[in-house]
Amino acid sequence: MDEASYYIVALRNTVDVLLVAYLVYRGLLVIKGTRAAPMLWGLTIIVLLYFLSKPLGFTTLGWLLGNFLSSIILVVVVIFQDEIRRGLTKVGLQPLFRKAAKVAYDKTIEDIVLVVSRLSKARTGALIVIQREVGLDEIVEEAVTLDAVLNRKLLLSIFVKESPLHDGAVLIEGDRVRAAGCVLPLSFNPDLDPNLGTRHRAALGLSERSDAIVVVVSEENGAISLCREGRMIRNLDASMLRDSLHRLLSSGQSNGEAAAEEA
């Protein structure tokens, strides 16, 4: 092998290792702080036990773990399906694959903050979904389609207890109220606070499956929470909610930049 070929092979191997390291790093970021993290540690322990079983002479244990790990790809897909879906969604939302659309959210944010503040003081439960890049057509199918310009009075009228739509979620897309009475998928994360009600679990459930931002007002104590990417920020006041929404929905930031800034 001549010197030029040697350097080409070395460069190719270096790039190969760096790409794999980057993918592993991004994968760890996706599962950081989620229930997948302890699952990954559990899977790592099983792999270590498998490699230790042979030199230690544990034939039966090695056979059992060997059969289990022979279907490791299927096991990983089943265990980490939510995290894989979330990671692939993030990849598809990068500016490399799409042209970032700029949406002015200033008025939308102010309307949401004012309405949420009033609902919080009155201890009226509310669930507000702000759609971003990932479409949410599946939650609109069984909901009441409004397609109306976002208005504070409209939002308040939806969530008053006499309204037949107050138990469902409101879906906001840009500066319009797309639908009301939406039923959201629940989160079944076993690590959640058992005191959290259906509204909060529904907010987390949708945030685990999409890039939507969900604002929740507790009917029990009026506490304001914000959910995104399967994580919940609790006990916000109006100022904190406004700052968080501006940071996440700023037209000058991509999703990745907003997430990095929030972290």
Give the structure's gist in a few sentences.
The chain is an alpha+beta fold. It has eleven helices and seven strands.
Could you give me the name of the CATH homologous superfamily of the largest domain?
A: DNA integrity scanning protein, DisA, N-terminal domain
Overall shape: elongated
How many structural domains are formed by the residues? Answer: 2
What ranges have pLDDT less than 50 throughout 5 or more consecutive residues? 251-263
* Count of β-strands: 7
The CATH architecture term of the largest domain is: 3-Layer(aba) Sandwich
Name of the CATH class of the largest domain: Alpha Beta
- What's the CATH topology label of the largest domain? YojJ-like (1
Task: Provide an overview of this structure.
The chain is an alpha+beta fold and 263 residues long. The protein folds into two domains: 3-92, no CATH class; 106-262, DNA integrity scanning protein, DisA, N-terminal domain (YojJ-like (1), CATH 3.40.1700. The chain is 54% helix and 15% strand. The chain contains eleven helices and seven strands. The protein has a seven-stranded mixed sheet, with helices on both faces. α10 (238-249) runs antiparallel to α11. The longest helix is centred in the N-terminal third of the chain and has 29 residues, at 3-31. The protein is elongated. The N and C termini lie far apart (48 Å). Mean pLDDT is 80; it is low at 251-263.
